[in-house]
Structures are given as structure tokens and as C-alpha cells.
């Protein structure tokens, strides 16, 4: 794999991030420790170095598995990202949320499970609508100054909150968010309304979760006896079926799998993007790695964009309409000038 910089930093990460939510079976699904080790080995052997986890994945077991694995590896080779916010125990009222107390407690617990002295990238997992953003940024900056965290990032948070946070951090000389993790795929393009333009403005790398739409974009739900997708499902509905069929058509034309097309689309959108791709089997990882041998043509991108297009709402659509009007006026004035 090639490497790219994560946001406005000098940190080099591989082209896609390995999602580890499925490492462990405490939630009734996932990969056992031996299989998880094998997946991380295959990822590293392919040049991958970016691991994504969280304090709550598989009730903490995911971090424990990664910690045991890293003890057998060169820790500095890997860029380890984890998260805090969601409740990981019932000990006290502050065992969840974005507040400083939970942040500090969660980081200490993650460091123990991961068996490491530092976390490379710490994400705020989800905005709680309670904690002031300056409390969050100051806490993250303190952890970075202490050497327990190297970089700050944020996930599943409104664009205006992230923008306020990075502006405040720049003013105060605190560490800024360098990455933004949100759901983004051909069947979930709403981040294009506010979140992605904001990330581009601040030079943040977008790290999409569910870039395959929870498996919908692989086409597996359209094959065999499973028939058509249920209309009431959030990701499995008539619209996602229509989009997936276009993905599958292009995949057939190129002689690749549908997942390759869907993954590469996220990486060819004109902004810094490092998709998070999970795996609970070696075969899944090996198939996803092939996506990076693919380059979609302008014609393929146009077909995918048209099939998955969403209304931007106000003011996005208004800006588009205004641009059309201004171009029309500009053309008119050009003609007037030429005649005169």
C-alpha cells in the first residue's frame, strides 16, 4: 500500500484503515483472537499500519486483543487509533460522555487494555450535546502534552461543533482535530452537505466508517434466494438496491468485485479520504486489498455520482442554482462586450 498524511500533520498512514470492531466475540459475533491476529498479520504484510478501535468494541475485548498482538510486534510501526465517549461500565454517572473526567479515565483504561504507553490518534466518539467544546479540546491537548496521545480526532459530531473547536484550538495554541470519522458511502452521502466541506476547509482527513454500506454495496443481499431488499430497512431499501445495481454493473464491466468499486469511489472524491474497512475473515481482507489496484474512470465516477446523488438542501442547492444563474449572466455580458 501507499501512504498518505493524516490531515494537517506529518503522520503517515496506509491507504485504508483496518476496522477492528469484529475482533472478539463478546457481542455474540466476530473473530476469535487467533483469527484476529491472522488478519492483522495479513494487513501489516500488505503494508497496512493504521488500526481503528474503540474502548467499547466487544465490551473492551477488542482493545485487549490488539494489545496482546502489539506486544509481539514493532509498536512504532502501527498507528493506533481508539475512541472515548460511550459508556464502558456502570461505575459512576461520569462513565460516559465527552467530559474531561470520562476522557481521562477512558484513556487510562484503554492504555491498560492496549498494553501501550501511548495512543497515536484519540477520537471523540460521538458528540454528547452537553460538554463545552473548549473542555474537550483542552483535555485532549493536555493528554498530548503528557505524551499519552499523539493526535486528536473527532467522530460523529455536527460540522459547526468541529469548526468551532478547531478555530478555538488555533486561537489558543491547542492541538487541532486532524481527522473526521463519519458514515460515508454511495448510499450515505449526506456528509457532503456540511461535514465534508468543513473537513476540506480545515485540511482534515475523512475516515469513513461503513464505506460499503454495512455490506449492502457488495451486492450480497441481491444474490441468491434473498431476493429484493426490504423497503423499511435503513440501509437495505429500494434506493440502496438501485445504487448497488449500478455498482455491480460497473464492477462487471471492469472484472472486479462490487466492493472494490464502492471503496475506490470514496477515495476518488477530491478530498483526503482514508476509508475504514473491517474484516472478521482473512478472505474479506484479501478481497478488500485488491480495491487499491483499481482506478475508476471519469465516466464510471459520473455514473456512480448520478445514481447516488442527494439534494444538498439549503444553502447547498441554492449555491448551485445561484452559480447557474451567474454563469448565465456572465455569458450574456460576454456577448454584449463582444458586440460593442
UniProtKB/TrEMBL annotation:
Instruction: List residues of the NADP-dependent oxidoreductase domain.
Output: 17-308
- Keywords assigned: Oxidoreductase
Pfam families documented for this protein: Aldo_ket_red
Say if the entry is tagged with keyword Transport: no
User: What cellular-component terms does GO give this entry?
Assistant: cytosol
GO MF terms on file?
Answer: oxidoreductase activity
Q: Which organism is it from?
A: Mucilaginibacter yixingensis
Matching InterPro entries? AKR_Detox_Biosynth (IPR050523), NAD(P)_OxRdtase_dom_sf (IPR036812), NADP_OxRdtase_dom (IPR023210)
Q: What is this protein called?
A: Aryl-alcohol dehydrogenase-like predicted oxidoreductase
Amino acid at each position: 500500500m501507499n501512504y498518505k498524511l493524516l490531515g494537517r500533520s506529518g503522520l503517515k498512514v496506509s491507504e485504508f484503515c483496518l476496522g477492528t470492531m469484529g475482533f472478539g466475540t463478546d457481542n455474540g459475533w466476530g473473530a476469535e483472537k487467533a483469527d484476529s491476529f491472522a488478519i492483522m498479520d495479513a494487513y501489516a504484510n500488505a503494508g497496512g499500519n493504521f488500526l481503528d478501535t474503540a474502548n467499547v468494541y466487544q465490551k473492551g475485548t477488542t482493545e485487549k486483543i490488539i494489545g496482546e498482538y502489539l506486544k509481539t510486534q514493532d509498536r512504532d510501526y502501527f498507528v493506533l487509533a481508539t475512541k472515548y465517549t460511550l459508556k464502558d461500565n456502570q461505575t459512576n454517572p461520569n462513565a460516559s460522555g465527552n467530559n474531561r473526567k470520562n476522557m481521562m479515565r477512558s484513556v487510562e483504561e484503554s492504555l491498560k487494555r492496549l498494553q501501550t504507553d501511548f495512543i497515536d490518534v484519540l477520537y471523540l466518539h460521538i458528540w454528547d450535546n452537553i460538554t463545552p467544546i473548549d473542555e474537550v479540546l483542552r483535555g485532549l491537548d493536555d493528554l498530548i502534552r503528557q505524551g499519552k496521545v499523539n493526535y486528536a480526532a473527532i467522530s460523529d459530531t455536527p460540522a459547526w461543533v468541529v469548526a468551532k473547536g478547531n478555530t478555538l484550538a488555533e486561537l489558543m495554541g491547542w492541538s487541532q482535530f486532524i481527522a473526521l470519522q463519519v458514515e460515508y458511502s454511495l448510499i450515505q452521502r449526506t456528509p457532503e452537505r456540511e461535514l465534508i466541506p468543513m473537513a476540506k476547509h480545515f485540511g482534515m482527513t475523512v475516515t469513513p466508517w461503513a464505506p460499503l454500506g454495512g455490506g449492502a454495496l457488495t451486492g450480497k443481499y441481491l444474490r441468491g434466494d434473498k431476493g429484493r431488499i426490504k423497503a423499511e430497512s435503513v440501509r437495505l431499501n429500494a434506493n440502496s438496491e438501485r445504487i448497488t445495481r449500478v455498482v455491480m454493473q460497473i464492477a462487471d464491466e471492469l472484472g472486479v468485485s462490487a466492493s472494490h468499486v464502492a471503496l475506490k469511489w470514496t477515495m476518488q472524491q477530491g478530498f483526503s479520504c482514508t476509508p475504514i474497512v473491517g474484516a472478521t475473515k482473512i478472505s474479506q481482507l484479501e478481497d478488500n486489498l485488491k480495491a487499491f489496484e483499481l482506478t475508476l474512470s471519469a465516466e464510471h465516477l459520473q455514473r456512480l455520482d448520478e445514481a447516488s446523488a442527494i439534494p444538498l438542501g439549503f444553502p447547498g442547492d441554492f449555491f448551485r442554482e445561484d452559480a447557474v444563474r451567474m454563469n448565465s449572466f456572465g455569458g450574456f455580458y460576454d456577448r454584449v462586450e463582444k458586440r460593442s
